[in-house]
Write a structure and sequence with these properties.
single chain, 114 residues, mainly beta, Lipocalin, 8-stranded antiparallel β-barrel, 1 helix, 8 strands
Length: 114
């Protein structure tokens, strides 16, 4: 009896594991039409290009901070790294911002879930 209970609990954990994924994880289309994936990497989320000239290149790493994400993001076209931040404006729209000067100067790009 105990053995069946343990097995059932373990199976329930396996079935519900995908529900534990963070909202930011997944495949995204950038505002410029490129494709990226965001996946957990340690205690952060890594951003990797999945199409085009920079396919396979990691371009960012963010950590969750309340209802937003903060870290570093690199523009693969010029190889410059910026202070990165991301937040949601709807379940399938991610605002990705790269900035300098403490966030005073920057650009925000809207990404959509694929």
């Amino acid at each position: 009896m105990i053995r069946e209970f343990i097995l059932a609990a373990a199976m329930a954990g396996l079935v519900s594991a995908p529900a534990l994924a963070d909202q930011i994880e997944g495949r995204w289309r950038t505002g410029e039409g490129g494709n990226v994936s965001i996946a957990g990497c340690g205690s952060s989320f890594c951003i990797k290009v999945t199409s085009g000239e920079f396919n396979g290149r990691q371009i960012g790493k963010l950590k969750k901070d309340g209802d937003k994400y903060v870290g570093k993001i690199t523009d693969p076209a010029n190889d410059r790294t910026y202070r990165g931040s991301a937040w949601f404006s709807g379940a399938n729209t991610l605002n990705m911002r790269g900035s300098v000067l403490g966030g005073l100067v920057g650009r925000t790009d809207k990404w959509t879930r694929r």
